[in-house]
Amino acid sequence: MKWVTRENANVDRIACPWLIKRFVDPDAAFLYVPADQVVAVAEREGAIPYDVPDVELGHVDGRCSFESIMRTYGLLGDKGLVELARIVHAADVRDNIDTSPYGRGLKAIAYGFAYLHGKDDHTKIALESPMYDALYAFCQQQAAHEATS
């Protein structure tokens, strides 16, 4: 499948490709385009739009796009992934930055990658994916510890 969103990605638009490749579609291809071209490119390429206004996989009912993807693709049963989603949400949604103690840290790291790599969104995905793997492993351990406490 092809997926399309706005270029110059930071938190949600980098976390979502990690989520999609890891849990939804390992062969996914991602297109990053100017915001005003997302809908046209989605239609032309048969791509799934995400993290843009007025789409199913965007900020809907208080969810960030990462959470919308989890909900749509039935990933809410993974407690570690749910915790990771809380962190992504906190880092991505300005008014909710303090809803996770790790939100500010993830935001700082994501913006650091953006400062280093600008609009090279594919490089940011490649470099940040291992960080999301590590954060997911941490969240899984946290969830396992809470389940046994």
What does it look like?
The protein is mainly alpha-helical and 149 residues long. It has helices at 12-24, 38-45, 65-72, 79-92, 103-117, 121-148, and strands at 2-6, 29-33, 48-49. The chain has a 3-stranded parallel β-sheet, with helices on one face. The protein is globular and about 50 Å long. The protein starts with a strand and ends with a helix. The model has no long low-confidence stretch (mean pLDDT 95).
Task: List the topology elements.
Blueprint: E1 2-6, H1 12-24, E2 29-33, H2 38-45, E3 48-49, H3 65-72, H4 79-92, H5 103-117, H6 121-148
Parallel strand pairs: 1-2, 1-3
Helix pairs in contact: 1-3, 1-6, 4-5, 4-6, 5-6
